[in-house]
What does this fold into?
Amino acid sequence: METGAAALTAHSDDARSLTMPLAGNPFAPGSLVIVDDGVHRQVALVESRDDERGIARGRLIGTIVGSALDTRASHPFGEAAVTAVDLESIDQLHAATGAALEVGGDLMPPGHPARLLPHRFNRHTFWCGQSGSGKTYALGVVLEQVIAHTALPVVIFDPNSDFVRLGELNPDASGPSADALRERDIRVLRPNTAGAKPLRARFLDMPIMSKAAVLELDPVADREEFNALLHLRELFEVTEVASILPTLRGSDEPAHQRLALRLENLGLLGWEVWAGRDRAATEVIDERPDATVLDLGGFSTPEQQLVVALSVLDELWARREDRRPLLLVIDEAHNLCSPQLESPVAVAVRERLIQIAAEGRKFGLWLLLSTQRPSKVHPGIISQCDNLALMKMTSPIDLEGLATYFGYAPTALIARSPWFRQGEALFAGGFVPAPTLVKVNARLTPEGGVDVGVPMR
Ligand SMILES: Nc1ncnc2c1ncn2[C@@H]1O[C@H](COP(=O)(O)OP(=O)(O)OP(=O)(O)O)[C@@H](O)[C@H]1O
Ligand SMILES: [Mg+2]
It folds into this structure.
């Protein structure tokens, strides 16, 4: 009688990893499977297929005990039957790990919902993919879930005005997430948009070193002016930029005169970024709205977006001991933390981000950085990221770099990135129950700066 193909079996010596033959093995890397040796039923992830040696490898994720999954227990076995995962086991995995934020569908069978662990946004997250891969869209999907279902306040540094409509809902949006979003306090700060709350920085509140950076003062090359600034520290803490000029001009000190010239020549007085009577972004964020969108794109000069970013990061860092959790989302992160940035304000922003990447975690300052190329973000920041979202990326050099930074992401899954379609991503690291290939859900809120279409006749 025909008995069909021999059942697929796996083997594990160490209760962590497992191997199984490739022959008769339909499971691609990224698949969850059940391994059952008659004593324990365990959930495992297939991570790689080695054609040369004819084996597939994977890792054990947890043991099914009754109706629950225990992710702390895994067991070695000489021979265990391998079968496809069932929906119930996936639900158990999500329940056991607290994966509650539904962000898309798993690309692997059985095509179940993909969920992230909200409590693991207490780590830094790196998000990358080439232009058009759908980073900003997918980031929006994830942020909607974070904002709807957690009490973690979010600040979004938005250089392309992509998130300025985050406080609205698409007409067809419905369900619990949409209902929750409707209730959230989402504030959008914009540089020059009539009717919008203004995006401003308060010069006098900035630390002295940041003021020096704004004035492009080097402590050695510009030692006299820098020193004058130090001595005028108190004046600069109570007087806005616009009112400081007459005082400097009225002074007999040559260094004060030179500072006045510098203020004028840099055009600082004409910048719209200064708060004056408006509220500064720092003052809005201090109230911890559920989400604050900083629309950095619309300033008349590029330095001003850096000044706002610096003022916000400085303030959060100065008050880090308050330990008030905040997720800092930086789209197009290379604008703020590329190793190639050289202007004094840009360097100050980058240094502050490196500091937050290294030490912010314990103070509740968590970063989510999105960029097109990993090489455009300072390595001191990438190496601190415990969560990875990878979208389509075709550059082999960039992919190789990622594999070295993110050892927790299986190489075989990273290698699939060039074939991702728009909206497809690999999630790996602590914020996902196991490395997962995902097609992200549709947005609930409208996108801001959508691509401009070609006009047709
Ligand atoms: N999952 C998706 N479903 C529907 N449309 C999408 C999806 N992802 C992206 N798009 C659309 O594709 C376009 C590009 O997406 P997006 O702006 O997210 O790419 P990006 O990776 O952020 O690119 P860039 O690096 O240039 O900012 C947008 O117009 C967006 O509406
Ligand atoms: Mg984008």
